[in-house]
Structures are given as C-alpha cells and as structure tokens.
Amino acid sequence: MSNLDPRATPSLCGGRGFVVAEPVRELLAPRRVQLGESTEVRRLLPNLGRRMVGAWAFVDHYGPDDIADEPGMQVPPHPHMGLQTVSWLHDGEVLHRDSLGSLQTVRPRELGLMTSGRAISHSEESPKPHARLLHGAQLWVALPDAHRDVEPHFQHHTDLPTVTAPGLTATVILGELDGTASPGTAYTPIVGADVELAAGAGARLPLDPDHEYAVLSMSGETEVDGVPVLPGSMLYLGCGRTELPLRGVSDAGLMLLGGEPFEEEIVMFWNFIGRSHEEIAQAREDWTSGTRFGEVKGYDGGRLPAPALPPTALKPRGRVR
Q: Measured in Å, how far apart are the chain's first and last C-alpha atoms?
C-alpha cells in the first residue's frame, strides 16, 4: 500500500539511541488518513512519539468497512525501495499487481509479502466483484543496508504455521515466535503474528527480552499486560520482556509486532526508505521520469505522482521525534 498523502513529510527513524530498554506500556493513538475515495486508514507507525518497532517502520489499520456498494481499495501504481510490504487481511480480498508481472489475489490470513529491494512498483485494488467487508493491515519492514539492494520479489503464502494455547491461536506471519517460523523471507530478527483470543481467555506469549514489541488491536477488546486496548490502537511495550500476558475481554484479534531494535538510521519519505537526501531525491526523479521502477500492467488508471521534496535536506536521525 502507498502513502497517498500529497503533503508527504520525511520520517527520520532508526538507531538504538531511543530504544526503551525496559518494559513499558505506551498507548499510541492513530492518525486518520484518507486513501483514495473510499478507504480511510488509521496510521499507527510512524507515530508522533514512536517511529519504529524493530524493523517495522509503517503500520496502517483499516476497516472493517462495508464496501458492498463502493469500489473498495483502489491504490494506483506507485514505487517502493528499501523495504518489504506485508499485506494482512481479516476480511475481504486485495488484488496485487507489480512491475515483475505478479498478479495475485490475497485473502484473509494469507501472507502477501513484497520485497522491493532497490526498486519495484505495484498497485492494490479490491477485485470486481468483491466481498462486502474490507478489514486488514498494511505494514512495511525496513531492509538493513546489507540487503536493501536485493533483487525485488513477491511471495504469497497461504499455509502459515501457528502457536496455540487454551483460548489462543497465533499465526506466525513473518519471522519467528516460540520457535515457530514463517515461510516468508525476513532480513532481520523479527516477528509478526496474528493472535486470535477468545472471550475470557488468559494466556502468556513467550517473548525475547532483547527485542522490542508492540501490539496492534484489530478487533474486540483485550487487556495487554493489564492495559485495555481497543481496535485501531497500538500499545508499545519496549524491551526486557520474557512473556506477554493477554486477556480477552471479548473475542478479539491482535497483531504482535516486534524484533531486534533496528540499529541503522534511515530516512523514510513517501514510499521510499533510504539513508540520505540524495538517495531519496534520485528515487523520486527516477519515478517521475519513468525509469528504474518498471511498469505495472493491467491496472485501470494512471500512476501516482510523487509529492514534492521538503525545502530542507533530509537527514537520518533517531527513532523518535
């Protein structure tokens, strides 16, 4: 998914200087962003006070939206570099097209994982016809310097492993949880898991104390380490935890996001992750001139134009503003 804001501003992220080394309970409120004509998202990362969680650098939560009489998601062709996109649905379908020629419908609890590497472009849309409801999350993972020029590729996995406990099922989307690993390709120590929790159930998820974590509420009401978390909000948890207590106030859906704190400082502007102003400016010029990012064929509409760069040079800084 693209950042469609025409007034895009840089997000200066990364580095270990601002990682919270002990357990915390920091509730992050979303910022509402309009994507196209009929889709509104709640943006949790980057956030005013928290820019990354491990290598997770961008998190949008959307729906559940009734799109029976609407076009649904319509995100025109746009570029990416230096990152992976993770498409995750609870309801509906998203048709993915990219400049490699990939054409894939992603359905609920299936992993759509696109690694941009040095350059790729793609579009996302609700198919015709489409389901009544659309509900999901779109996330980005920053690629470390050693892998950010990797060959672009797209992966689609329909059979993902799970971790279970009484009243709890956790589907491992990316990385590893409790010794169970996703088939999706990861380039840093990371975890992304979809957690289904039954009403009244209490459980404890095992965590790595050297990693930082956050929980995104997708549906229902949950207590995360004793903190009520409602749909569309995210609780940042810091590091230093060996387990995470969860309690389902109602039937609930959550996403656990975490990983080793991302050591490198990065610049995130529009749909690009780089390391310098010059690199971002060159990517923007390449997209505008029609070079490097390839062509998405089959989408009924034009490409997204790139927003203007800010008047001052972009500089990589720390993990919080």
A: 24
175 close to 259: Cβ distance less than 8 angstroms: yes
Q: Is the pLDDT of residue 266 over 60?
A: yes
Measured between alpha carbons, how far is 23 from 37 in angstroms, rounded to an integer? 40
Closest CA to 49 of 203, 234, 226, 178: 234
CA dist 246 and 205 (Å) reads: 8
Q: What is the average pLDDT across 281-299? A: 97
Nearest-angstrom CA–CA distance, 26 and 237: 7
Which band of pLDDT confidence, cut at 50, 70 and 90, is reported for residue 38? low
Q: Which residues are CB-contacts of 58 (< 8 A; sequence separation ≥ 6)?
A: 3, 45, 46, 83, 138, 139, 140, 268
Name all domains of the chain by residue range, CATH numbers in brackets: 15-259 (2.60.120.10)
**Residue 67: both structure tokens together:** 């799109």
> Residue 94: beta bridge partners?
106
The size of the chain, in residues, is: 321
Task: Categorise residue 290: left if φ over 0, alpha if ψ from -120 to 50, beta otherwise.
Answer: left
Cα–Cα distances in Å, from 305 out to 8, 235, 289, 312? Answer: 12, 34, 11, 21
Tell me which DSSP letter residue 281 carries: H
List CB contacts of 171: < 8 A, sequence separation 6 or more.
109, 160, 161, 162, 193, 194, 195, 196
For residue 317, name the pLDDT band (cuts at 50, 70, 90). low
pTM of the full structure: 0.92
